[in-house]
Design brief:
With 199 residues, the chain is an alpha/beta fold. The protein has helices at 18-28, 53-68, 102-113, 177-183, 185-197, and strands at residues 10-13, 34-37, 72-81, 120-130, 136-147, 163-165. It has one domain (10-197): Maf protein (Alpha-Beta Complex), CATH 3.90.950.10. It is 30% helix and 22% strand. Helix 4 (177-183) packs across helix 5 (185-197). The structure holds inosinic acid. Inosinic acid binds at residues 17, 48, 76-79, 92-93, 123, 156-160, 172, 184, 186.
Length: 199
Protein backbone atom coordinates (compact mmCIF):
# COMPACT_ATOMS: atom_id res chain seq x y z
CA UNK A 1 0.00 0.00 0.00
CA UNK A 2 1.22 3.52 -0.79
CA UNK A 3 2.69 5.48 2.11
CA UNK A 4 1.84 9.14 2.36
CA UNK A 5 4.00 12.18 2.99
CA UNK A 6 2.32 15.14 4.69
CA UNK A 7 3.05 18.88 4.86
CA UNK A 8 5.71 19.66 7.48
CA UNK A 9 7.46 16.33 6.96
CA UNK A 10 11.15 16.32 6.06
CA UNK A 11 12.30 14.75 2.81
CA UNK A 12 15.84 14.12 1.57
CA UNK A 13 16.49 14.83 -2.11
CA UNK A 14 18.87 12.04 -3.07
CA UNK A 15 20.71 13.87 -5.83
CA UNK A 16 23.93 15.82 -6.17
CA UNK A 17 22.94 17.23 -9.59
CA UNK A 18 22.23 20.97 -9.25
CA UNK A 19 19.91 21.10 -12.29
CA UNK A 20 17.76 18.27 -10.97
CA UNK A 21 17.74 19.66 -7.42
CA UNK A 22 16.53 23.03 -8.71
CA UNK A 23 13.70 21.43 -10.69
CA UNK A 24 12.58 19.00 -7.96
CA UNK A 25 12.66 21.74 -5.29
CA UNK A 26 10.42 23.86 -7.53
CA UNK A 27 8.00 20.95 -7.96
CA UNK A 28 7.91 20.31 -4.16
CA UNK A 29 7.69 23.98 -3.09
CA UNK A 30 3.88 24.27 -3.16
CA UNK A 31 3.48 21.19 -0.91
CA UNK A 32 5.00 22.51 2.31
CA UNK A 33 7.47 19.62 2.51
CA UNK A 34 10.80 20.55 4.14
CA UNK A 35 13.55 19.37 1.80
CA UNK A 36 17.23 18.82 2.44
CA UNK A 37 19.67 17.61 -0.18
CA UNK A 38 21.88 14.54 0.15
CA UNK A 39 24.86 16.84 -0.41
CA UNK A 40 23.88 19.12 2.48
CA UNK A 41 23.70 16.05 4.76
CA UNK A 42 27.13 14.91 3.56
CA UNK A 43 25.73 11.63 2.22
CA UNK A 44 27.99 9.78 -0.23
CA UNK A 45 26.94 9.15 -3.85
CA UNK A 46 26.29 5.42 -4.27
CA UNK A 47 27.47 3.62 -7.39
CA UNK A 48 24.69 3.54 -10.01
CA UNK A 49 25.24 0.14 -11.56
CA UNK A 50 21.69 -0.97 -12.40
CA UNK A 51 20.86 -1.56 -16.08
CA UNK A 52 17.86 0.78 -16.11
CA UNK A 53 16.61 4.13 -14.80
CA UNK A 54 14.23 2.62 -12.23
CA UNK A 55 16.95 0.42 -10.75
CA UNK A 56 19.40 3.31 -10.41
CA UNK A 57 16.71 5.54 -8.90
CA UNK A 58 16.05 2.86 -6.25
CA UNK A 59 19.77 2.51 -5.44
CA UNK A 60 20.04 6.27 -4.77
CA UNK A 61 16.79 6.64 -2.81
CA UNK A 62 17.36 3.58 -0.61
CA UNK A 63 20.96 4.64 0.15
CA UNK A 64 19.85 8.14 1.19
CA UNK A 65 16.84 6.95 3.23
CA UNK A 66 18.88 4.30 5.06
CA UNK A 67 21.76 6.67 5.82
CA UNK A 68 19.56 9.60 6.93
CA UNK A 69 16.64 7.82 8.62
CA UNK A 70 14.29 10.03 6.58
CA UNK A 71 12.16 9.42 3.50
CA UNK A 72 14.23 10.15 0.39
CA UNK A 73 13.30 11.04 -3.17
CA UNK A 74 15.73 10.28 -6.01
CA UNK A 75 15.74 10.98 -9.74
CA UNK A 76 17.52 8.86 -12.29
CA UNK A 77 17.07 10.21 -15.76
CA UNK A 78 18.64 10.42 -19.16
CA UNK A 79 18.54 11.34 -22.80
CA UNK A 80 17.77 8.63 -25.36
CA UNK A 81 18.34 8.93 -29.12
CA UNK A 82 16.55 6.58 -31.51
CA UNK A 83 19.36 6.63 -34.11
CA UNK A 84 21.82 5.55 -31.38
CA UNK A 85 19.68 2.65 -30.16
CA UNK A 86 18.57 4.63 -27.11
CA UNK A 87 22.06 5.86 -26.11
CA UNK A 88 23.33 7.66 -24.12
CA UNK A 89 20.40 6.50 -21.89
CA UNK A 90 21.58 5.43 -18.44
CA UNK A 91 25.06 6.64 -19.41
CA UNK A 92 23.88 10.25 -20.03
CA UNK A 93 25.88 11.71 -17.15
CA UNK A 94 28.98 9.66 -18.02
CA UNK A 95 29.10 10.93 -21.62
CA UNK A 96 29.93 14.35 -20.14
CA UNK A 97 33.15 12.95 -18.65
CA UNK A 98 34.72 13.75 -15.28
CA UNK A 99 34.51 17.49 -16.05
CA UNK A 100 30.70 17.12 -16.50
CA UNK A 101 30.99 19.04 -19.75
CA UNK A 102 27.69 18.75 -21.59
CA UNK A 103 28.99 20.66 -24.62
CA UNK A 104 31.24 17.61 -25.08
CA UNK A 105 28.37 15.16 -24.45
CA UNK A 106 26.10 16.95 -26.94
CA UNK A 107 28.85 17.08 -29.57
CA UNK A 108 29.36 13.36 -29.08
CA UNK A 109 25.64 12.68 -29.71
CA UNK A 110 25.77 14.89 -32.81
CA UNK A 111 28.89 13.19 -34.21
CA UNK A 112 27.58 9.67 -33.64
CA UNK A 113 24.23 10.53 -35.30
CA UNK A 114 26.00 11.87 -38.40
CA UNK A 115 23.42 12.66 -41.07
CA UNK A 116 20.98 9.95 -39.95
CA UNK A 117 17.54 11.34 -40.92
CA UNK A 118 15.93 9.77 -37.83
CA UNK A 119 16.08 12.67 -35.34
CA UNK A 120 13.73 11.15 -32.71
CA UNK A 121 14.82 11.43 -29.09
CA UNK A 122 13.25 11.33 -25.65
CA UNK A 123 14.02 11.99 -22.01
CA UNK A 124 13.08 9.52 -19.28
CA UNK A 125 12.94 10.17 -15.55
CA UNK A 126 12.50 7.55 -12.85
CA UNK A 127 11.60 9.03 -9.49
CA UNK A 128 11.87 6.77 -6.46
CA UNK A 129 10.57 7.53 -3.00
CA UNK A 130 12.20 5.31 -0.35
CA UNK A 131 11.52 5.01 3.38
CA UNK A 132 14.17 4.13 5.97
CA UNK A 133 12.69 0.61 6.36
CA UNK A 134 13.41 -0.14 2.69
CA UNK A 135 9.88 0.37 1.29
CA UNK A 136 10.08 2.01 -2.17
CA UNK A 137 7.75 3.37 -4.82
CA UNK A 138 9.01 4.20 -8.31
CA UNK A 139 7.38 6.23 -11.09
CA UNK A 140 8.43 6.81 -14.71
CA UNK A 141 7.89 9.88 -16.92
CA UNK A 142 8.81 10.40 -20.58
CA UNK A 143 8.80 13.25 -23.08
CA UNK A 144 9.30 12.62 -26.81
CA UNK A 145 10.76 15.05 -29.30
CA UNK A 146 13.65 15.60 -31.70
CA UNK A 147 17.36 16.33 -31.72
CA UNK A 148 18.42 19.71 -33.14
CA UNK A 149 21.90 20.95 -34.01
CA UNK A 150 23.51 23.30 -33.12
CA UNK A 151 22.39 23.46 -29.48
CA UNK A 152 20.19 26.44 -28.60
CA UNK A 153 19.60 28.22 -25.28
CA UNK A 154 21.39 28.50 -21.96
CA UNK A 155 18.57 27.61 -19.58
CA UNK A 156 17.99 24.18 -18.09
CA UNK A 157 20.91 21.74 -17.90
CA UNK A 158 22.48 18.67 -19.49
CA UNK A 159 21.19 17.90 -22.99
CA UNK A 160 18.39 20.52 -22.86
CA UNK A 161 19.85 22.77 -25.62
CA UNK A 162 19.72 19.99 -28.25
CA UNK A 163 16.15 18.76 -27.58
CA UNK A 164 12.87 20.16 -28.92
CA UNK A 165 9.80 18.47 -27.40
CA UNK A 166 7.12 17.33 -29.88
CA UNK A 167 4.81 20.19 -30.84
CA UNK A 168 7.20 22.93 -29.63
CA UNK A 169 9.57 25.27 -31.48
CA UNK A 170 11.97 26.05 -28.63
CA UNK A 171 14.53 23.69 -27.15
CA UNK A 172 14.34 22.86 -23.43
CA UNK A 173 17.41 25.10 -23.18
CA UNK A 174 15.43 28.09 -24.53
CA UNK A 175 12.19 27.52 -22.56
CA UNK A 176 11.60 29.12 -19.19
CA UNK A 177 11.32 26.76 -16.24
CA UNK A 178 7.50 26.76 -16.20
CA UNK A 179 7.27 25.84 -19.88
CA UNK A 180 9.68 22.92 -19.36
CA UNK A 181 7.78 21.79 -16.24
CA UNK A 182 4.51 21.77 -18.19
CA UNK A 183 5.71 18.83 -20.30
CA UNK A 184 8.96 17.40 -18.93
CA UNK A 185 9.70 13.76 -18.16
CA UNK A 186 10.53 14.80 -14.58
CA UNK A 187 7.27 16.71 -14.10
CA UNK A 188 5.29 13.79 -15.57
CA UNK A 189 6.88 11.33 -13.15
CA UNK A 190 6.44 13.83 -10.33
CA UNK A 191 2.70 14.14 -11.05
CA UNK A 192 2.40 10.41 -10.27
CA UNK A 193 4.46 10.78 -7.06
CA UNK A 194 2.08 13.54 -6.02
CA UNK A 195 -1.04 11.49 -6.62
CA UNK A 196 0.30 8.35 -4.94
CA UNK A 197 2.58 9.55 -2.16
CA UNK A 198 1.32 12.86 -0.76
CA UNK A 199 -1.65 13.39 1.58
P1 LIG B 1 21.91 10.58 -13.55
O1 LIG B 1 20.42 10.39 -13.42
O2 LIG B 1 22.51 11.18 -12.34
O3 LIG B 1 22.57 9.34 -14.04
O4 LIG B 1 22.16 11.69 -14.66
C1 LIG B 1 21.25 11.91 -15.66
C2 LIG B 1 21.82 12.79 -16.73
O5 LIG B 1 20.83 12.82 -17.78
C3 LIG B 1 22.02 14.22 -16.32
O6 LIG B 1 23.32 14.49 -15.90
C4 LIG B 1 21.72 14.95 -17.62
O7 LIG B 1 22.84 14.94 -18.42
C5 LIG B 1 20.70 14.09 -18.32
N1 LIG B 1 19.37 14.63 -18.04
C6 LIG B 1 18.44 14.12 -17.19
N2 LIG B 1 17.35 14.92 -17.16
C7 LIG B 1 17.63 15.95 -17.97
C8 LIG B 1 16.90 17.11 -18.33
O8 LIG B 1 15.79 17.41 -17.86
N3 LIG B 1 17.50 17.92 -19.20
C9 LIG B 1 18.72 17.67 -19.74
N4 LIG B 1 19.46 16.63 -19.43
C10 LIG B 1 18.91 15.75 -18.55
Amino acid sequence: MARKLAAGQKLVLASHNKGKLREIEALLRPLGIAVVSAGALGLPEPEEDAPDFAGNARIKAVAAATASGLPALSDDSGFCVAALGGAPGVLSARWAGPAKDFAVAMASVHERMGDNPDRRAWFIAALCLAWPDGHTETFLGRIDGAVVWPPRGDRGFGYDPMFVPAGAQQTFGEMDADAKHAVSHRARAFAQVLTSCFV
